[in-house]
Amino acid sequence: MTYPVALIADSTCDLPPEWVERYGILIVPQTIIFGREVFLDGIDMTPEAFYERLERTGEHPTTSQPPPEAFVRAFHRAAEQGAREIITFVVSSHMSGTYRSALQAAAESPVPVHVVDSCNNSMGMGWQIMAAARVREQGGDVAEMLRAAQKVREAMVYFVALDTLDFLQKGGRIGAAARLLGSLIQIKPLVYVKPSDGTVAPSMPARSRTGVIENLFREFFKRLDTSRPLHIAVLHNLCPADAEALARRVEATYHPAELIIRVPSPVLGAHTGPRAIALCGYAEPA
């Protein structure tokens, strides 16, 4: 279907493929680098293949944002498909240079482009895109789509339980001293994304995996108005049994309006490492 307002996002949005197809969302891939091997996220390498390689080899990959040219190609494609305006969602500008690439590319677009810093990643961005897409389905214009996404962005809650500090340290997210301390006392970190600016902050760690998943559940739902309809994603770095158990608990306890399970982009997994598990979602505003 051709839309007058196109939706474009970078590949860290982690939207289910059926939603991408249903709403005609164009995805611009990020890049994953293992040594001298370069892969386009979701094209040359799937999340499942990435996490399997990560655990099997112990290699630490690096990542790279899409160049402006990749966004320019997407903008031209959208215009050729009939779009008269474009909304582009990108991973938090505090986590990546993707926002700068998209802004630079917007100057070369054949139609106006609204670049949105999602102040988040994974389904923290994905839920914003879906809010805009659903408003568009109801006949909403660009301003209404942007307002819907902003409401979801401001309401977003996203907590991640990590199995190790190693990948945060290797990715430059924490210092070596903090990693050593965490290793000595066997901390399982819990972090969250601040929706106000898209930065990552520490929450309640635990001494065991069971404990940190319990903290994840408790801290996540403390920040939601559970009397409102909930839209929740369980995200996991290839630990499906834990993810399915967590999803069953969420369903049984809170009966969300939407509940999905996703394996996040390798670009995110390069910093969170194997067996990370997360809850990401929001309560519909009153």
Automatic annotation (TrEMBL):
Gene3D superfamilies from the UniProt entry: 3.30.1180.10, 3.40.50.10170
Keyword Ion transport attached: no
Keywords assigned by UniProt, alphabetized: Lipid-binding
Gene Ontology molecular functions: lipid binding
Keyword Transferase: no
Pfam families per record: DegV
Coiled-coil regions, chain positions: none
InterPro entries for this protein: DegV, DegV_C, DegV_domain_contain
Descriptive protein name: DegV family protein
The species this protein was found in: Thermanaerothrix daxensis
